[in-house]
Amino acid sequence: MSLLVKICGLRNESDVLAAVEAGADAVGFVFAESVRRVTVAEAAIATASLHSDIRKVAVMRHPSNEEWQDVLLEFRPDALQTDIEDVDGLDVPDNVQIIPVIREGSAALDAELPDVFLYEGANSGQGELVDWQRAAIIAERGRLILAGGLSAENIGEAIASVRPFGVDVSSAVESEPGRKSPELMREFINAARAAEQDL
């Protein structure tokens, strides 16, 4: 199984094209409070020409079901990423994958874990590293997508330490907050693919 690489916090079509050209498997659009937040219309326009092989992920946090339905109807994501405690209150069709976010120290870690989940620190998009040794143990219990503080400089060590199902990056591939850099995205994905060969 190849490593899933997701670039999160994209805001326009040029970002999307650069991420795909660099080799991303999934692109994430933030609909929660953030410098990277986009409207549903902006996300739909940015992905209008996206090939179906690339997964579109709606990134939310504590949305109402009404907010989620607006995103679902106009953006038509392949997956919804939101905190695990949000999931039960949302009507998600069977053709949309749910990627629950489990945060470091969450009580959800004491229960049976979902098949696929994203693991990160308390605050999304802030470059917060999680404890990789602890993450490695959790990764044995399901398909863990590692997020938080990953960069081209440390992704090799992170992959070797945690052996995740996937990795997710946002702030470390930006030239400034909210502005993606094609060069940094390419460097990150190249480093991740190189580390993947040793898994």
Written account of the structure:
With 199 residues, the chain is of the alpha/beta class. It has a single domain, classed as Alpha-Beta Barrel (TIM Barrel), CATH 3.20.20. The chain has six helices and ten strands. An eight-stranded parallel beta barrel has the order 1-2-3-4-5-6-7-8, surrounded by four helices. Strands 9-10 form a two-stranded antiparallel ribbon. Strand 3, helix 3 and strand 4 form a beta-alpha-beta unit. Helix 2 packs parallel to helix 3. The longest helix is centred in the last third of the chain and has 15 residues. It is globular, with a radius of gyration of 15 Å. The mean pLDDT is 95.
Low-confidence stretches: none
The percentage of residues in β strands lies in 15-25%
- CATH class label: Alpha Beta
- Write down the Rg: 15 Å
Strand order of the largest sheet: 1-2-3-4-5-6-7-8
From the helix content, strand content and strand pairing, which structural class follows?
alpha/beta
Separate helix tally = 6
One letter per element, helices H and strands E, the order comes to EHEHEHEEEHEHEEEH
Query: Can you count the beta strands?
Result: 10
Helix content: 25-40%
Instruction: Examine the secondary-structure arrangement and name the CATH architecture.
Output: Alpha-Beta Barrel
Major sheet characteristics: 8 strands, parallel, barrel
Counting structural domains, the number is 1
How far from one another are the termini?
Answer: 10 Å
Q: What is the CATH third-level topology name?
A: TIM Barrel
Which word captures the global form?
globular
Q: Superfamily at the CATH H level?
A: Aldolase class I
Average pLDDT, to the nearest integer? 95
